[in-house]
């Protein structure tokens, strides 16, 4: 019971935005993970790049903010990983499209 009370009253507990921000932010990596089932042609390279930059910046923020927000950092690390995977799928699809176009031109 003391552990639950300590968590409830902590500076990163459910009474704060340090808890609820990362909790709702998990929708980003979950949506990206679901999108891995879609064809790579449906991926926006620009948006995926922006999401990679966003998560990189906020990983740093989560590390330096006081109190340190590990929950937010793990969320953005997960999002960064999934977004980089999506970006690699998009790049491979773009290369494949270019190769097919070159073969058709020959």
TrEMBL record:
InterPro entries with a match to the protein in the record: MPC
Subcellular location: Mitochondrion inner membrane
GO biological process, one term: pyruvate import into mitochondria
Signal sequence coordinates: none
Membrane topology: Multi-pass membrane protein
One CC-aspect GO term: mitochondrial inner membrane
Keywords, alphabetical: Membrane, Mitochondrion, Mitochondrion inner membrane, Transmembrane, Transmembrane helix, Transport
Statement: the UniProt record of this protein carries the keyword Transmembrane: yes
One Pfam family named in its UniProt record: MPC
Function: Mediates the uptake of pyruvate into mitochondria.
PANTHER family: UPF0041 BRAIN PROTEIN 44-RELATED
Family assignment from sequence similarity: Belongs to the mitochondrial pyruvate carrier (MPC) (TC 2.A.105) family.
Name of the protein in question: Mitochondrial pyruvate carrier
